[in-house]
């Protein structure tokens, strides 16, 4: 990382924006930032850390107070490069802060207003990488590789943070090294990766075990059992299929006969229903005939009724017209009288009104002129009053200005007199200044004398306390050494009496686990044996019962077969008998018998007409059915016996295998042995844990005592060195005290001489009085200038007021003349207006007159329109009345003719009157509905007869009873259900067997994969143990720290001319070796301020030169403290060391107010102090 440019505005003492060009500043490799105390040097480092990390570590990370009091916002912009030298990627971070004030609490608060990070690698195309405070902070840490604390400990070292890394110990320094040397990959990140890998592997193992548990029910025994069940189901399916086909053939034969029977019964029920509807159908036919006759006369009736209705309507209308004509005649007479009156009024009053309107319009015009002139006259009066009032006020102001001028002249004369009184001669002023400076030096020397005396007293006290502490530490060291020897003896005794190790515990644990597993297995086998024995007992009982039933059913089958054979013989005999009867029936008297050849037939065989043969056949068929069913039952029982025998054999073999596995072992004996092993394991574990605790406590005590002895040795050596330095310092301070006493005596003599010449007692009091007089004289001169300025201003204002008074007086005279002219014209116009309209308003009078004329015209038009309308309406009504009377006479003639024609039609068709005709009348739709119903009935009747004849022909005398049909259905359904059930069971068993085969194959493959996963999990566990507790990263960090300490030691030796070297203790803490004092090793907290600075500088140089995180190599660091504690010689050495760093491509910036250091640094950034109320701090490069 290389800084390029920093811009600061409104931060601490900076108000205006200041630019710091690090490219120019760091050309020589070493530069300095100089300025007086409080000028804002450290604020430059604050600006860098604030821009990068959004906080200032030396302010505790707080933002309150960072914004200058003369502004409400602060802004920092920092441009820097990352990468190899000459191949930088350019970035710019920018932050703006705003101060707000809470009126309720009275506190101010500074918050981030904006934050952004840009990539400026392409100047013409800047890219915004992050925006927002959190996002920019995270982006900076990712780019640079350091957080804010690490940055201030190793790169930008502000006041108070320079020696932090030197004095850090333990976990804090380990975490810092882990970050700055990119060791997270081998520490927490590596452990996290291993843990994630282990968790993933453990999850795979658990998943594999879960998968295997899903296949726990698959074994070779279950496969044999599944195969046996499959064969039994196949045999049952074949037998059931044979029985079902026999029953299905009979079912299909009688199913058609049963359906015909049901259909025939339906049609017969339909015939009965049709016979019940016959009377109603005849009635509908009669209605159809009368409705057709009525339909022929209905048009005549409709026409006659229409004529009658029209005649009645015309008669009503004629009456109405008669009444309207009479009423309209009376209205027409009244309207004619009103019309004549309106014409007379219009001709007389309208001309007079129009003449009056012309006069009123002239009056309106005059009234408007009067109003305009009156407004102008009022405006002139208002201006006259305004000018008069303004003129009075201006005259008062003019008089007041004159009084102020007089007062100012008197005050200026008084200031001049007092100024002459306060003047003092330059000769006296110079001597007084010398006396004042001499008195101040005398006071400073007195204070210094007192401070030296106090410091000498402190050194004497410290020397005595150090001697006492050395004595006490030596005595404690001897006591602790004796205790340490006793602890070594105790440790050897423990090692000789070790009860065992963790490996012994692990072996015993494995033995106990194996024994417990054997117990669990034996218990499971015994439980399985008991279950098998109970199952075998049940199978033996079931097999015995089934064997007895099989014997019974076989005997029944033999009996049925014997009876069937007997019926078969009877059928044969009966068939022969029937054949003889047939021959006997064909014999004729005198013909030879075809059997015996005799012509005489005394006793021919008589036929039984087949009734006996039919009965024997039916019985034989029934026996065939019974025999088939009995054979199926016997086969089913035989299959069940075979199945039971196979189960018995399988379970007997399983029981024998279990007896072989148990091999006479007793569960109680194994449990007793397991309890003994467990008790011994617990005793051994307790003893080992107790021994390890004692061993650990002893080691901890030994290490603690070693640390204490080492610290005491270091502390004693440091105390002795400090005693020697304090003695040297005491002699030096006593010498300085004597020199100060001589300077104090000389200064007192010079002061007394000056006070005598000036004739004063206290130089400071007189000097302060002179200063007060000077300040008073300056105030008087300022007041005199102000008075002169005010006099000039007042005279100018007085002249301006006099000119304004003259102008206003002239304007008021002109307004008076114009007002008199307007008043005379106004009186003339008012007289003329009064002549035209008197006291009445001309506009109102005009409106009233126009309204009168309009009303007359409107009334005339209204009456005239009404009169004309009534005349036209009367003429029209008279014409309508005449036409209507003619139409009514013609209509009555036509009505009489049509009535005669209608009555003749009624008589011809047998209807008495209109009422009877309406009773039998039906519209065409109703007639068609009745006719269609009759036709449908006749069609249904014919179709029903045809269906009954068709079905009787199909049956041909065959039939089946409901009981026989139901039995046949039940038998078929029973066999079909059993057949489907066996098929489903067979399909399910085949699928189960196939699935079992697949699961057996999968189980073998899963076992192989699990063995591989267990092996990988063991390897990952071993790797996790290697990286546990950050042991690996601690090892790498210790190597890095050793390297840094060696390089820092080389730099420290160069700076201290071979006196000091830097080492690491056994605990990894920094210690300093003093080679000028016999190689004594001292802890860092015992170093003086100068020694701490030199050691921290060497360590910071070594650390900064080796920081490497990601893509960010740090090529600079800043130093902001410690140079004031160095003497001239050491300062020379430090500057030489810093200048030598330019060859190492490292830029170093130092911040100091030490003048000697400023002279040695070629490139300097000068910070000038802020001027209150004028400007903030400023910077420039020299």
Automatic annotation (TrEMBL):
Residue span(s) of domain Rad50/SbcC-type AAA: 6-303
Hydrolase as UniProt keyword: yes
Q: Which residues form a coiled coil?
A: 216-294, 363-453, 515-549, 681-722, 760-811, 874-908, 965-999
Instruction: Tell me which Gene Ontology terms the entry assigns under biological process.
Output: double-strand break repair
Q: What keywords does the record list, in alphabetical order? A: Coiled coil, Hydrolase
What are this entry's molecular-function GO terms?
ATP hydrolysis activity
Keyword check for Transmembrane helix: no
Q: Which family does it belong to?
A: Belongs to the SMC family. SbcC subfamily.
Annotated PANTHER family? ABC TRANSPORTER ABCH.3 (PTHR32114)
What does the subunit comment say? Heterodimer of SbcC and SbcD.
Q: What is this protein called?
A: Nuclease SbcCD subunit C
Q: Which organism is it from?
A: Syntrophomonas zehnderi OL-4
């Amino acid at each position: 990382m290389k800084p390029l440019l920093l811009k600061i505005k409104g931060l601490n003492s900076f108000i205006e924006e200041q630019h710091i060009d690090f490219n120019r500043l760091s050309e020589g490799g070493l530069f300095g930032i100089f300025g007086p105390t409080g000028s804002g040097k450290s604020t430059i480092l604050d600006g860098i850390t604030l821009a990068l990390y959004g906080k200032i570590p030396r302010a505790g990370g707080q933002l309150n107070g960072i914004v200058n009091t003369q502004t409400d916002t602060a802004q920092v912009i920092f441009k820097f490069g990352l990468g190899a030298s000459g191949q930088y990627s350019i970035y710019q971070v920018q932050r703006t802060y705003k101060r707000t004030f809470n009126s309720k609490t009275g506190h101010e608060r500074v918050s981030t207003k904006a934050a952004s990070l840009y990539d400026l690698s392409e100047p013409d195309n800047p890219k915004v990488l992050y925006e927002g405070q959190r996002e920019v902070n995270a982006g900076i840490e990712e780019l640079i590789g350091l957080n804010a604390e690490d940055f201030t400990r190793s790169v930008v070292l502000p006041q108070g943070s320079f020696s932090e890394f030197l004095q850090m110990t333990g976990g804090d320094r380990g975490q810092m090294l882990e970050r700055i040397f990119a060791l997270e990959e081998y520490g927490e990140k590596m452990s996290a990766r291993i843990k994630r890998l282990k968790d993933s592997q453990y999850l795979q193992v658990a998943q594999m075990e879960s998968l295997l548990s899903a296949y726990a029910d698959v074994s070779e025994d279950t496969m044999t059992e599944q195969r046996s069940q499959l064969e039994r189901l196949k045999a049952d399916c074949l037998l059931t299929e044979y029985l079902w086909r026999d029953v299905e053939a009979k079912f299909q034969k009688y199913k058609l006969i049963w359906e015909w029977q049901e259909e025939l019964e339906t049609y017969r029920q339909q015939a009965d229903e049709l016979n019940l509807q016959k009377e109603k159908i005849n009635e509908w036919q009669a209605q159809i005939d009368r409705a057709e006759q009525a339909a022929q006369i209905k048009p005549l009736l409709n026409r006659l009724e229409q004529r009658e209705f029209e005649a009645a309507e015309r008669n009503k209308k004629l009456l109405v017209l008669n009444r309207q004509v009479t009423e309209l005649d009376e209205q027409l007479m009244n309207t004619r009288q009103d019309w004549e009156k309106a014409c007379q009024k219009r001709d007389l009053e309208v001309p007079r009104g129009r003449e009056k309107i012309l006069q009123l319009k002239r009056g309106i015009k005059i009234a408007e002129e009067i109003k305009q002139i009156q407004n102008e006259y009022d405006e002139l009066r208002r201006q006259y009053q305004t000018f008069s009032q303004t003129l009075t006020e201006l005259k008062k102001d003019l008089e007041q200005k004159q009084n102020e001028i007089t007062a100012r002249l008197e005050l200026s004369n008084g200031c001049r007199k007092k100024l002459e009184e306060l003047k003092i001669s330059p000769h006296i002023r110079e001597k007084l200044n010398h006396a004042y400076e001499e008195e101040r030096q005398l006071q400073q020397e007195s204070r210094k004398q007192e401070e030296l005396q106090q410091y000498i007293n402190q050194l004497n006290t410290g020397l005595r306390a150090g001697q006492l502490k050395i004595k006490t530490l030596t005595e404690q060291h001897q006591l602790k050494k004796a205790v340490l020897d006793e602890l070594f003896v105790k440790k050897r005794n423990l090692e000789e009496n070790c009860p065992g190790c963790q490996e012994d515990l692990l072996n015993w644990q494995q033995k106990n686990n194996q024994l417990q597993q054997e117990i669990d297995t034996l218990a499971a086998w015994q439980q399985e044996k008991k279950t098998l024995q109970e199952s075998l007992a049940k199978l033996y009982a079931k097999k015995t019962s089934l064997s007895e039933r099989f014997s019974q059913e076989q005997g029944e089958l033999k009996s049925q077969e014997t009876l069937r054979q007997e019926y078969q013989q009877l059928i044969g005999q009966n068939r022969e008998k029937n054949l003889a009867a047939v021959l006997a029936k064909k014999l004729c008297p005198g013909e030879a018998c075809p059997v015996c050849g005799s012509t005489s037939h005394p006793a021919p065989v008589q036929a039984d007409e087949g009734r006996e043969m039919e009965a024997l056949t039916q019985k034989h068929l029934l026996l065939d059915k019974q025999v088939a069913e009995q054979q199926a039952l016997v086969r089913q029982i035989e299959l069940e016996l075979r199945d039971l025998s196979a189960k018995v054999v399988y379970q007997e073999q399983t029981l024998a295998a279990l007896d072989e596995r148990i091999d006479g072992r007793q569960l109680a004996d194994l449990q007793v042995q397991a309890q003994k092993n467990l008790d011994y394991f617990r005793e051994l574990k307790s003893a080992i844990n107790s021994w390890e605790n004692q061993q650990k406590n002893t080691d901890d005590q030994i290490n603690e005592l070693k640390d204490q002895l080492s610290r005491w040795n270091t502390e004693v050596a440091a105390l002795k060195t400090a005693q020697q330095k304090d003695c040297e310092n005491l002699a030096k301070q006593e010498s300085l005290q004597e020199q100060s006493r001589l300077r104090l005596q000389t200064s007192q003599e010079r002061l007394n001489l000056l006070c005598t010449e000036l004739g004063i007692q206290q130089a400071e009091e007189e000097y302060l009085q002179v200063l007060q007089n000077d300040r008073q004289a300056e105030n008087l001169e300022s007041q005199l200038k102000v008075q002169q300025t005010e006099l000039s201003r007042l005279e100018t204002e007085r002249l301006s007021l006099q000119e304004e008074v003259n102008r206003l007086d002239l304007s008021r005279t002109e307004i008076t003349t114009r007002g008199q002219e307007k008043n005379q014209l106004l009186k003339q116009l008012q007289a003329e207006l009064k002549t035209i309209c008197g006291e009445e308003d001309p506009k109102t009078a005009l409106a009233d007159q126009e309204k009168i004329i309009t009303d007359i015209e409107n009334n005339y038009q209204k009456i005239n329109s009404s009169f004309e309308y009534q005349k036209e309406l009367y003429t029209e009504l008279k014409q309508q009345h005449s036409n209507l009377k003619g139409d009514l006479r013609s209509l009555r003639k036509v009505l009489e003719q049509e009535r005669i024609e209608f009555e003749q039609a009624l008589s011809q068709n047998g209807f008495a009157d209109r009422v009877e005709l309406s009773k039998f009348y039906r519209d065409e739709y109703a007639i068609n509905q009745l006719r269609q119903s009759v036709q449908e009935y006749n069609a249904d009747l014919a179709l029903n007869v045809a269906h009954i004849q068709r079905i009787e022909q199909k049956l041909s005398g065959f039939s089946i009873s409901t009981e026989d049909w139901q039995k046949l259905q039940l038998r078929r359904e029973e066999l079909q259900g059993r057949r489907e059930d066996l098929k489903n069971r067979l399909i399910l068993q085949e699928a189960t067997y196939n699935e079992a085969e697949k699961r057996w194959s999968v189980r073998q493959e899963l076992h192989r994969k699990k063995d591989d996963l267990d092996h990988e999990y063991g390897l990952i566990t071993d790797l996790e143990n290697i990286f546990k507790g950050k042991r690996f990263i601690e090892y790498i960090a210790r190597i890095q720290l050793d390297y840094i300490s060696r390089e820092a030691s080389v730099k420290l030796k160069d700076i201290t001319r071979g006196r000091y070297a830097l080492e690491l203790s056994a605990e990894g803490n920094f210690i300093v070796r003093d080679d000028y004092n016999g190689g004594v090793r001292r802890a860092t907290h015992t170093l003086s301020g100068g020694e701490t600075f030199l050691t921290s500088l060497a360590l910071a140089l070594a650390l900064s030169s080796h920081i490497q995180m990601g893509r960010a190599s740090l090529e600079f660091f800043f130093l902001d403290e410690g140079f004031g504690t160095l003497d001239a010689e050491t300062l020379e050495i430090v500057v030489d060391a810093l200048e030598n760093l330019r060859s190492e491509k490292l830029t170093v910036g130092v911040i100091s107010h030490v003048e000697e250091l400023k002279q040695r640094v070629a490139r300097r950034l000068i910070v000038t102090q802020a001027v209150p109320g004028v400007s903030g701090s400023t910077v420039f490069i020299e």
